[in-house]
Amino acid sequence: MIICIDVGNTNLTIGAYENGACVKSWRINSNDFSYDKLLLSFDDNKISNIQGICVGSVVSNITDILQELKNKYSDIPVVFYNEVEDIIMDISRVNAKEVGADIVLNGIGGIKKYNDNLLIIDFGTATTFDVFTKNNVFCGTSIAPGVNLSLETLVAKASALPDIKIEPTSKVICGNTVECMQSGIFWGYLNMINGMINQIESEFDFEFTVIATGGLAQSYSKYTKKISHVEKNLALDGLYILFERNKKI
């Protein structure tokens, strides 16, 4: 079994792979993370016979903690994204030092599966729009505040506004505070997503397969025809591919 750990600002997403397929995945809140909680989650999910581990992270202090995995599992390959020589993706068109591991891993996983030019929309702490060509070239990204982050900031800064559940309303203009907020958050972001897809497509000379990933991907994809596929474990898939390419180094 190969364990892949995708460390984001909000969650650690962990996947267990057998024969190239993710057979189980779970999350740990990044704010509550500890090394002991990670090991306990292995036991809770009945993870045994670990033959390799691959880690991709955008949170430096958690990356440092996870280095301890090299000591505990010293008899198997433990691969870190930021340490490998072969990241598969060509990122020379952008400032390589500023490209997050999550973006590259999404691209690796997506191109392996679809073998096409991709626009990947990641609904995470930030909402990112990432462009890749089918020959493994990362062209760049656009970064917007994430849906949940925007809602949290709105509620925190406006004392009269309540916390709400993110869901679509039957119409855009509503008559009570909760539905008015739901309308603005849901339909406002959906129109931003559609508009961004249109503008990105107009900037390139090739067509895209548009993929959504991240926590709210399924919710928003239901209401637009511009998103072709939803992939729950795209970054984890990228980590698994990265592991297979680098496990002997």
Question: Which structural class should the secondary elements be placed in?
Answer: alpha/beta
CATH class of the largest domain: Alpha Beta
Give the averaged pLDDT, no decimals. Answer: 95
Q: What's the order of the H and E elements?
A: EEEHEHHEHEEEHHEHEH
Widest β-sheet, arrangement of strands: 3-2-1-4-5
User: What's the tally of helices?
Assistant: 8
Strand content: 25-35%
Tell me, what's the shape?
globular
Give me the count of strands: 10
| The CATH homology group name of the largest domain | ATPase, nucleotide binding domain
Uncertain runs are none
Number of domains: 2
Radius of gyration: 19 Å
Can you tell me the CATH architecture of the largest domain?
2-Layer Sandwich
Separation of the first and last Cα atoms: 19 Å
Tell me roughly what share of residues is in helical segments.
25-40%
CATH topology of the largest domain: Nucleotidyltransferase, domain 5
Largest sheet geometry = 5 strands, mixed
Can you describe this structure?
The chain is of the alpha/beta class. 37% of the residues lie in helices and 25% in strands. The protein is built from eight helices and ten strands. The strands form two sheets. The chain has a five-stranded mixed sheet with strand order 3-2-1-4-5, with helices on both faces. Strands 8-7-6-9-10 form a five-stranded mixed sheet. A hairpin with a 2-residue loop joins strand 2 and strand 3. Helix 4 (101-114) crosses helix 8 (234-246). The protein is globular, with a radius of gyration of 19 Å.
